[in-house]
Amino acid sequence: MLQAIVYTSVSVQPMTDFMLETLLLEARRLNLESGVTGALIYSAGTFMQYFEGEPLAMAETYARIRGSRQHTRVTEMLNEPIAARAFPDWQMALAQPARSEPLALATADWVLRNSLSVAHAPVGLAMLRSFWRRRPPPD
Ligand SMILES: Cc1cc2nc3c(=O)[nH]c(=O)nc-3n(C[C@H](O)[C@H](O)[C@H](O)COP(=O)(O)O)c2cc1C
User: Would you tell me how many other CB atoms lie within 10 Å of the CB of residue 64?
Assistant: First the structure.
């Protein structure tokens, strides 16, 4: 039994590389313990995160994420059972899209809202995966 959640949120202050690294180190440590995998996108004050795992671990992780004071306006875009992991090798990947990529992020919102649910789930997941395909897993 596996579950996937996608949300967007707004950082309470601009995230420096150091702040993102600190956040990621903590997230990966926790995710290694709980078996959660996924990917986090940060661009210009906006987070988008996809994470997946066992329902109990997901509930704990989601509560922790929602409770963080580092961001606000957590908006759920997807919360559904999945058949298999999309990011089995990633304790939590990080992508900071180049300036030319916010459009892709905006499109991602539309794609996820419209295609990552019910019948067309593979479309949205394939898009998320392609976003990371060229990036090697973290150490
Ligand atoms: C954008 C974002 C992503 C996060 N991702 C994860 C995650 O993948 N796994 C996890 O266990 N916690 C995650 N957290 C929670 C943090 O690891 C940490 O527990 C939380 O930020 C602590 O609360 P604080 O930020 O108010 O100090 C995330 C938090 C934020 C803001």
Answer: 13
